[in-house]
Amino acid sequence: MFSKRLLAWQLMVQNQIDRDQLSWVDMIARIFDVTLNFAVAIISDPASAENEELDEWISLAQNLLRNMGSSNLLASKAVGRLGTIRQRTYSAMERHYNPSRSRTSIDEYLQKATQTMAQPQPSMSDLFGIQEITETIWQEEVNIYSIHFPGLETVCGDEGLMSLNRFLDGCIPVTH
After folding, report:
1. Of 6, 40, 8, which is closest to residue 167 (Cα–Cα)?
2. In angstroms, rounded to a whole number, what is the distance separating the alpha carbons of residues 45 and 92?
3. Per-position DSSP letters for 4-28, written without gaps between them
4. Given Cys at both, which of 42, 61, 76, 163 links 69, Cβ 3.0 to 4.6 Å?
5. What residue spans define the domains of the chain?
6. Which residues contact 3 (CB under 8 A, 6 or more apart)?
7. What is the phi/psi pair of residue 130, to 5°?
8. Position with higher pLDDT, 140 vs 63
9. How would you write the chain as a 3-class SS string?
10. What three-state secondary structure class fits 127?
11. If pLDDT is split at 50, 70 and 90, which confidence band does 143 have?
12. How many other CB atoms are there within 10 angstroms of residue 56's CB atom?
């Protein structure tokens, strides 16, 4: 939910603030991180009913970066990495990724972003009951990734692409 809200906020900012006033690198880094979170969720549990919606949010992120790419080289490089991420998520969901399929315009995403931002922001007590918060599971350390969570550096050069692919390979699917 928080990742969706962050991406919705990014869309609103990009559409309402003058381009000269945007902090490009910061926005690109946030969009990339949020997208990677969605990808991990999809790859870790490819059968989840939420994957279609998460893919829609990844598509929004890709379109945001594509829109920025005309003004920023880093954004145009990040679009390619999001293409790599989408290929991997589609592969996990056993679907075929077609980068040339019709693209949804940014304006079409504004309604979804507005609805997301209008939803009340959940607190920890909303997400978990009092009893669940005190359970010992929250004090256990979980090693789910075999390497570090990649950052914005992965959009630069071939080394970054290899690092991104190694990370996505290391995402452990949930066994049911």
Report:
1. 40
2. 9
3. HHHHHHHHHHHHHS-GGG--HHHHH
4. 76
5. 2-170
6. 34, 37, 38, 57
7. -55, -40
8. 63
9. CHHHHHHHHHHHHHHHCCHHHCCHHHHHHHHHHHHHHHHHHHHHCCCCCCHHHHHHHHHHHHHHHHHHHCCCHHHHHHHHHHHHHHHHHHHHCCCCCCCCCCCCCHHHHHHHHHHHHHCCCCCHHHHCCHHHHCCHHHHCCCCCCCCCCCCHHHHCHHHHHHHHHHHHHHCCCCCC
10. helix
11. low
12. 14
Mean pLDDT (whole number) for 153-159? 76
What pLDDT score was predicted for residue 38? 92
Q: Regarding predicted confidence, which is higher, 7 or 43?
A: 43
Flag whether pLDDT at 31 surpasses 70.
yes
Predicted model pTM: 0.70
Which amino acid belongs to residue 169? D
Within 13 Å, how many C-alpha atoms sit on residue 2's CB side? Answer: 7
Tokens of 26: 């910061």
Half-sphere exposure of 144 (CA within 13 A, CB side): 14
User: What is d(CA 174, CA 166) in angstroms, rounded to the nearest whole number?
Assistant: 18
